[in-house]
Amino acid sequence: MSPSEISSWSRHGFEITTDKSRLDRESILKMLGATYWARDVSPEDLWTSIENSRSYGLYSPDGEQAGFGRMVTDFTRFAWMSDVYILPVHRGNALGKWLVETMLKDPALAPVRRFLLSTNDAHSLYRRFGFISIGDDDEEARITMQLKR
Question: In which domain, by residue range, is 73 found?
Fold first, then answer.
């Protein structure tokens, strides 16, 4: 599978797709702008990072942007999972688990053996998928996680 090919997955009326033309820029920038990890990044820089990543839009049955995530990757050896969120109105339906699972099982990322991410508050979600905390000091180990496959 070519990294530029668009992939889509459906479940219970929701859809995840890598089709960047469907991303709701305003919704994504608003949600990311409210997060602890991206609030100090300009909207222009956030959008550039999205355009230069493998992006996953999650859409509700009515087509609303319900969530988002992205992988910064070389598509062969390494990927950094970033900016994963579900809109509050859609939380509690296992959509975050499905989004992370979909991102990790994306056929375009099949060759990738090392995934990294940083989180201050979602360790239990990522541990379900095999991520472990890494780092040389307490602060770094608390936020950086890795998955090797």
Answer: 8-107
Whichever domain contains 67, its CATH number is 3.40.630.30
- In this prediction the pTM is 0.91
In a domain, 85, yes or no: yes
Nearest to 146 by CA among 136, 133, 128: 133
At 103, list the tokens. Answer: 């991102």
Q: What is the DSSP string of 41-59?
A: S-HHHHHHHHHTSEEEEEE
- Sequence-ordered list of residues with C-beta below 8 angstroms from that of 116, at least 6 positions apart, any chain: 78, 79, 80, 81, 144, 145, 146, 147
Q: Are strands 54-59 and 14-17 parallel, antiparallel or unpaired?
A: antiparallel
What mean pLDDT value characterizes the chain? 91
Instruction: Give Cα 130 distance to the centre of its chain.
Output: 16
pLDDT tens by residue, the chain, 149 residues: 777 889 999 999 999 999 999 999 999 999 999 988 898 999 999 999 999 999 999 999 999 999 999 999 999 999 999 999 999 999 999 999 999 999 999 999 999 999 999 888 888 888 998 899 886 666 655 678 888 98
